[in-house]
Amino acid sequence: MKKDKKTNSHVYWNPYYGGFLLGIIIIFTFYLTGRGLGASGAMKSSVVTIVDKVAPTHAESNAYYSKFISKDDSPMNTWLVFEALGVLIGAFISGGLNGRIRWRVQHSPKISSKRRLVFALLGGILFGLGAQIARGCTSGAALSGMAVLSSGGFLTMLAIFGSAYATAYFFRKNWI
User: Fold this and answer.
1) For 35-68, how does the pLDDT look when each residue is reduced to its tens digit (9 = 90+)?
2) Alpha-carbon distance 142 to 152, whole Å?
3) How far apart are CA 110 and CA 117, in angstroms?
4) 165-174, long-range: CB within 8 Å, 24+ apart, which pairs?
5) How far apart are CA 139 and CA 37, in angstroms?
6) Is the entire prediction scored with pTM above 0.90?
7) Shortest CA distance to 36 belongs to which of 156, 158, 164, 163?
8) Contact at 8 Å (CB) between 139 and 18?
9) Spans in the chain with pLDDT lower than 50
C-alpha cells in the first residue's frame, strides 16, 4: 500500500540570507533617507487621515491627532506610507510569482481555524498597542537601532525575543 506524503511545495529563502538582505536594506535606507525602516508610522498616518476625514472637528480638538494634521500637507504624505505600500505590493508580487496567493488559515492540527484567527487578532492588537506605547515598532526600534549600533536597539531586540520565548512556552500547545 502506498502512502501519499504531503510535502511543502513552497520553496522559501534561507532565513540567514533574508536577514542579511534586510540588514543591507536597512543600511541603504539610512544612507538614502537618514533614518531606518518602520511600519507603525504608516499605520498612524492612515488612522489620523481616516479620523480627520470622518470626524474633522474631533481630530482637530484631540491632542494626539492634531499634532499630525496640517492644512498644507496630508498625514499620508510621508515616506513610511509609501514604504508600507511597497511592502504590500512586493508581498503580492512574490506570492503571485510563487503561487502562494489563496485564502487559507495556517494552524496546528490541535486548534481550529477560528481559534487561530482569534489568537492572531489578539496578538496583533497587543503588538499595535506596544508599538504605540514604545513610540515605534520592532523594525524601527530594534532593527534600525541595531543597524546604527545603538544600545537601545540591542536591548529592544533582546526584550522582544526574550518575551516571545517566555510567552511561547505557555501557548506552545496551540502551534505544535
Assistant:
1) 777 777 888 888 899 999 999 999 999 998 888 8
2) 8
3) 14
4) 171/119, 173/110, 174/108, 174/110, 174/111, 174/115, 174/116, 174/119
5) 6
6) no
7) 156
8) no
9) none
Q: Which amino acid is at 144?
A: S
Of how many residues is the chain composed?
176
Chain position carrying cell 492612515: 46
Place of cell 499620508: 76
